[in-house]
Predict the 3D structure of the following.
Amino acid sequence: MITAPGPLDGTPLDRSFFDRPVLDVAPDLLGRVLVRETDDGPIALRLTEVEAYAGPADPGSHAYRGRTARNAVMFGPPGYVYVYFTYGMWHCMNLVCGPPGTASAVLLRAGEITEGAELARKRRGTSRRDSDLAQGPARLATALGVDRALNGADACPPRPEPFRMLTGAPADPDTVRNGPRTGVGGEGAAHPWRFWIDGDPTVSPYRAHVPRRRR
DNA sequence: CAGTCGATTCACT
DNA sequence: GTGAATCGACTGA
Protein backbone atom coordinates (compact mmCIF):
# COMPACT_ATOMS: atom_id res chain seq x y z
CA MET A 1 0.00 0.00 0.00
CA ILE A 2 1.26 3.40 -0.94
CA THR A 3 0.83 6.24 1.49
CA ALA A 4 1.09 9.91 0.78
CA PRO A 5 4.35 11.56 1.81
CA GLY A 6 4.11 13.06 5.27
CA PRO A 7 6.29 15.22 7.49
CA LEU A 8 8.42 12.21 8.39
CA ASP A 9 9.32 11.51 4.78
CA GLY A 10 11.82 13.47 2.79
CA THR A 11 15.45 13.65 1.80
CA PRO A 12 17.86 13.36 4.74
CA LEU A 13 20.45 16.08 5.00
CA ASP A 14 23.91 14.77 4.23
CA ARG A 15 26.74 15.29 6.70
CA SER A 16 28.35 17.66 4.19
CA PHE A 17 25.47 20.04 4.89
CA PHE A 18 26.99 20.64 8.32
CA ASP A 19 30.57 20.69 7.09
CA ARG A 20 30.43 24.41 6.27
CA PRO A 21 30.99 27.61 8.22
CA VAL A 22 28.47 27.80 11.04
CA LEU A 23 27.22 31.21 9.89
CA ASP A 24 26.25 29.62 6.58
CA VAL A 25 24.63 26.58 8.14
CA ALA A 26 22.61 28.38 10.83
CA PRO A 27 20.22 30.38 8.59
CA ASP A 28 20.10 27.47 6.16
CA LEU A 29 18.64 25.26 8.89
CA LEU A 30 15.50 27.39 9.16
CA GLY A 31 12.49 25.60 7.71
CA ARG A 32 14.21 22.26 7.78
CA VAL A 33 12.88 19.33 9.73
CA LEU A 34 14.41 17.44 12.62
CA VAL A 35 12.93 14.00 13.18
CA ARG A 36 13.39 12.32 16.54
CA GLU A 37 12.58 8.63 16.93
CA THR A 38 11.84 7.03 20.31
CA ASP A 39 9.97 3.99 21.53
CA ASP A 40 7.05 6.32 22.21
CA GLY A 41 6.90 7.28 18.55
CA PRO A 42 8.28 9.76 16.06
CA ILE A 43 8.18 13.50 16.39
CA ALA A 44 9.03 16.07 13.74
CA LEU A 45 10.09 19.66 14.28
CA ARG A 46 10.28 22.41 11.66
CA LEU A 47 13.05 24.76 12.80
CA THR A 48 12.10 28.43 13.12
CA GLU A 49 14.83 29.88 15.34
CA VAL A 50 18.53 29.04 15.82
CA GLU A 51 21.73 30.59 17.12
CA ALA A 52 25.29 30.17 15.84
CA TYR A 53 28.20 29.66 18.23
CA ALA A 54 31.44 30.17 16.35
CA GLY A 55 34.25 28.25 17.97
CA PRO A 56 36.97 29.15 20.50
CA ALA A 57 37.16 32.75 19.25
CA ASP A 58 33.50 33.40 20.14
CA PRO A 59 33.17 34.80 23.68
CA GLY A 60 29.57 33.58 23.85
CA SER A 61 30.44 29.98 23.07
CA HIS A 62 30.99 27.10 25.45
CA ALA A 63 34.14 26.48 23.39
CA TYR A 64 35.54 29.93 24.25
CA ARG A 65 38.03 28.67 26.84
CA GLY A 66 38.99 25.59 24.89
CA ARG A 67 38.05 21.97 25.06
CA THR A 68 36.58 20.53 28.26
CA ALA A 69 34.75 17.33 29.13
CA ARG A 70 31.42 19.06 28.64
CA ASN A 71 32.07 20.65 25.24
CA ALA A 72 34.22 17.86 23.73
CA VAL A 73 31.56 17.00 21.14
CA MET A 74 31.79 20.52 19.73
CA PHE A 75 35.41 19.83 18.82
CA GLY A 76 34.53 16.68 16.90
CA PRO A 77 33.14 16.13 13.40
CA PRO A 78 30.06 17.94 12.04
CA GLY A 79 26.56 16.51 12.02
CA TYR A 80 26.59 15.36 15.63
CA VAL A 81 24.45 16.51 18.52
CA TYR A 82 25.88 18.51 21.43
CA VAL A 83 23.56 18.45 24.44
CA TYR A 84 24.28 20.36 27.63
CA PHE A 85 22.52 20.58 30.99
CA THR A 86 21.85 24.00 32.47
CA TYR A 87 20.16 25.76 35.39
CA GLY A 88 20.01 22.43 37.19
CA MET A 89 16.91 21.48 35.24
CA TRP A 90 17.10 21.90 31.51
CA HIS A 91 18.77 20.54 28.46
CA CYS A 92 19.65 22.39 25.27
CA MET A 93 20.53 20.84 21.92
CA ASN A 94 23.03 21.90 19.24
CA LEU A 95 24.22 20.58 15.90
CA VAL A 96 27.99 20.62 15.39
CA CYS A 97 29.20 22.43 12.25
CA GLY A 98 32.43 22.80 10.29
CA PRO A 99 35.45 20.51 10.02
CA PRO A 100 36.64 18.70 13.16
CA GLY A 101 38.31 21.11 15.56
CA THR A 102 36.24 24.08 14.43
CA ALA A 103 34.23 23.73 17.63
CA SER A 104 31.23 25.51 16.14
CA ALA A 105 27.60 24.59 16.65
CA VAL A 106 24.05 25.76 16.09
CA LEU A 107 21.74 25.95 19.10
CA LEU A 108 18.23 24.83 18.18
CA ARG A 109 16.09 27.46 19.87
CA ALA A 110 12.56 26.93 18.58
CA GLY A 111 10.39 25.22 16.04
CA GLU A 112 6.97 24.01 15.04
CA ILE A 113 5.99 20.45 15.91
CA THR A 114 4.63 19.11 12.61
CA GLU A 115 4.22 15.50 13.73
CA GLY A 116 3.77 13.96 17.16
CA ALA A 117 2.21 16.97 18.88
CA GLU A 118 0.36 14.60 21.18
CA LEU A 119 3.66 13.08 22.32
CA ALA A 120 5.21 16.53 22.73
CA ARG A 121 2.26 17.63 24.83
CA LYS A 122 2.64 14.59 27.03
CA ARG A 123 6.21 15.68 27.77
CA ARG A 124 5.57 19.42 27.99
CA GLY A 125 2.18 19.54 29.68
CA THR A 126 -1.31 18.86 28.49
CA SER A 127 -2.53 22.43 28.33
CA ARG A 128 0.26 23.79 26.15
CA ARG A 129 -0.66 25.68 23.02
CA ASP A 130 0.81 24.24 19.83
CA SER A 131 3.04 27.28 19.33
CA ASP A 132 4.41 26.85 22.86
CA LEU A 133 5.49 23.21 22.58
CA ALA A 134 9.01 24.00 21.34
CA GLN A 135 9.18 27.78 21.85
CA GLY A 136 12.61 28.05 23.49
CA PRO A 137 15.68 25.81 23.53
CA ALA A 138 14.92 23.89 26.73
CA ARG A 139 11.26 23.53 25.76
CA LEU A 140 12.39 22.19 22.39
CA ALA A 141 14.67 19.62 24.01
CA THR A 142 11.95 18.61 26.44
CA ALA A 143 9.38 18.19 23.68
CA LEU A 144 11.79 15.98 21.76
CA GLY A 145 12.76 13.93 24.79
CA VAL A 146 16.39 15.00 24.53
CA ASP A 147 18.78 14.79 27.46
CA ARG A 148 22.48 14.26 28.12
CA ALA A 149 22.23 10.61 27.13
CA LEU A 150 22.01 11.92 23.55
CA ASN A 151 25.13 14.06 23.76
CA GLY A 152 27.30 12.97 20.82
CA ALA A 153 24.46 11.29 18.92
CA ASP A 154 24.62 11.26 15.14
CA ALA A 155 22.19 13.57 13.33
CA CYS A 156 23.03 12.00 9.97
CA PRO A 157 22.95 8.30 10.81
CA PRO A 158 22.82 5.40 8.32
CA ARG A 159 19.61 4.36 10.04
CA PRO A 160 17.11 7.02 11.10
CA GLU A 161 17.75 6.77 14.83
CA PRO A 162 17.82 8.53 17.14
CA PHE A 163 17.69 11.59 14.87
CA ARG A 164 17.59 12.55 11.28
CA MET A 165 17.50 15.93 9.57
CA LEU A 166 15.33 16.36 6.49
CA THR A 167 15.70 18.99 3.82
CA GLY A 168 12.17 20.25 4.52
CA ALA A 169 11.22 23.47 2.80
CA PRO A 170 14.10 25.89 3.45
CA ALA A 171 12.90 29.27 4.62
CA ASP A 172 12.70 32.01 2.01
CA PRO A 173 15.82 34.12 2.70
CA ASP A 174 13.62 37.21 2.47
CA THR A 175 11.77 36.05 5.60
CA VAL A 176 14.90 35.31 7.63
CA ARG A 177 15.88 37.91 10.24
CA ASN A 178 18.92 38.02 12.49
CA GLY A 179 19.93 39.80 15.66
CA PRO A 180 21.84 39.39 18.92
CA ARG A 181 21.75 36.03 20.65
CA THR A 182 19.31 35.57 23.51
CA GLY A 183 20.76 35.48 26.99
CA VAL A 184 24.32 36.00 25.78
CA GLY A 185 26.20 38.73 27.63
CA GLY A 186 29.62 40.33 27.50
CA GLU A 187 31.55 40.54 24.27
CA GLY A 188 29.47 37.75 22.77
CA ALA A 189 26.39 39.98 22.79
CA ALA A 190 27.79 42.02 19.92
CA HIS A 191 27.40 39.27 17.35
CA PRO A 192 24.01 39.18 15.55
CA TRP A 193 24.05 35.42 15.23
CA ARG A 194 20.49 34.59 16.19
CA PHE A 195 18.41 33.72 13.13
CA TRP A 196 14.65 33.30 12.93
CA ILE A 197 11.73 33.19 10.51
CA ASP A 198 9.99 36.55 10.64
CA GLY A 199 6.47 36.44 12.01
CA ASP A 200 6.44 32.75 12.91
CA PRO A 201 4.41 32.23 16.11
CA THR A 202 6.80 29.59 17.45
CA VAL A 203 9.80 31.93 17.64
CA SER A 204 10.75 32.65 21.26
CA PRO A 205 10.85 36.21 22.62
CA TYR A 206 14.25 37.88 22.73
CA ARG A 207 15.72 38.49 26.14
CA ALA A 208 18.92 40.30 26.88
CA HIS A 209 21.40 38.71 29.20
CA VAL A 210 20.65 39.33 32.89
CA PRO A 211 23.47 38.70 35.38
CA ARG A 212 22.17 36.60 38.24
CA ARG A 213 21.57 38.54 41.46
CA ARG A 214 23.61 37.58 44.50
CA ARG A 215 21.82 35.72 47.25
C1' DC B 1 37.78 22.79 47.22
C1' DA B 2 34.44 26.48 47.78
C1' DG B 3 32.20 30.07 45.20
C1' DT B 4 29.85 31.51 41.22
C1' DC B 5 26.60 31.41 37.71
C1' DG B 6 24.48 29.72 33.53
C1' DA B 7 22.94 29.63 25.36
C1' DT B 8 16.07 28.88 30.98
C1' DT B 9 11.41 28.32 32.43
C1' DC B 10 7.55 28.93 35.34
C1' DA B 11 4.52 30.74 38.92
C1' DC B 12 3.06 34.72 40.79
C1' DT B 13 2.06 39.83 41.46
C1' DG C 1 8.09 42.46 35.77
C1' DT C 2 10.29 39.81 39.55
C1' DG C 3 12.14 35.91 41.83
C1' DA C 4 12.66 30.95 42.68
C1' DA C 5 14.01 26.44 41.21
C1' DT C 6 18.13 23.38 41.14
C1' DC C 7 22.82 21.26 40.01
C1' DG C 8 27.04 20.69 38.06
C1' DA C 9 30.78 22.64 35.16
C1' DC C 10 34.17 25.79 35.48
C1' DT C 11 37.32 28.95 37.83
C1' DG C 12 40.82 30.47 40.68
C1' DA C 13 43.03 30.06 45.06
The helical segments of chain A are 22-28, 117-124, 137-144.
